């Protein structure tokens, strides 16, 4: 395998040649070759040198993303997400917690209507129990409220799952 080297210390000649380094490069990685330190008294030269050697395969050195090449028209990943968000902003979808809140309020109103009918309490303090519209109004809230609450809850789960899958796709998990 051909080995390419790069010395970060170019001011001084290396103290050890690479031919004395006998590590095989089966898995190319970054490693450091440290040379022995020579220290002498002040009258002669005292020095300390370190050589750093990088070994990389030739193909890996040229692995730049396609969007980073100078002649590429492909936008970077963050720019692709921005164009997708602007195209999807034309159809507004409320977040999941809006559906969940509406489901909870509808379920409370439906159950409350049943309790008001059983206890003969006035509806919102407006319709008394002797009114002709008392039973139909409470019946409408009770019978349509429970399925509506179930639908809104299902819709909130559906929207939350859609948002989670979209985030997973953006993060690269799918």
Automatic annotation (TrEMBL):
Alphabetized UniProt keyword annotations: Membrane, Transmembrane, Transmembrane helix
Q: Where is the composition biased (Low complexity)?
A: 82-91
Q: Does the keyword Membrane apply?
A: yes
- Give me the segments passing through the membrane: 96-119, 131-154
UniProt-annotated stretches for the region Disordered? 58-91
- Transcription regulation among the record's keywords? no
Query: Which domain of life does this protein belong to?
Result: Eukaryota
PANTHER family, per database record: OS05G0490900 PROTEIN
Q: What is this protein called?
A: Transmembrane protein
